[in-house]
Specification:
two-stranded antiparallel ribbon; alpha/beta; ten-stranded mixed beta sheet
Amino acid sequence: MSYAIVGFGKIGQALAHAFARKNIEVTVASRRPPEALAPQARAIGPTVVAKSLRDALEADTIILAVPFGEHREVAKALPSWKGKTVIDATNAFPELDGLPSSAFVAKSFTGAKFVKGFNHLIAATLAADPIVEGGHRVVFLSSDDEDAIAPVADLAKQLGFAPVELGKLNEGGALVHARGRTWGQLIFQDLFKKEQ
């Protein structure tokens, strides 16, 4: 399984730290050329490799960590998303025709297995070691595709987190959606489980 983080702001870098801590190779990309990202990527760890967006999208699993409005530009970079898993770590601030933000984003990634995850914690918390006080920091996952959550839950465990499945995007997933003035009850909740 290969991984890429698209977006190298605070959340993208926080996730890169999580991969580096476990020596799991991950590609990072953004609007900027790879040479601009390379010094920061190297500073995070040797398993974090800056590449072009096109090269990053060759990964099996892509974590979307771009500002919300930029998801469409990323989606246009591939003619088909079939066979890819997209993990949506974005949060939306505009209203979206009543849709949960991930349901709105998923429409742009036709054919992808789509999972909402890693979005409810602030960057500093996400970057910190998830193993604390004998427990594992919780990450919430939701998807309308039942087959999509298991491999993302496995990745979360590899990174040291305790995945908690919330079900479909517009059901339990609504608990971790931030949109407009409506914030899900689990946004910014820093929770731990004794076991993964």
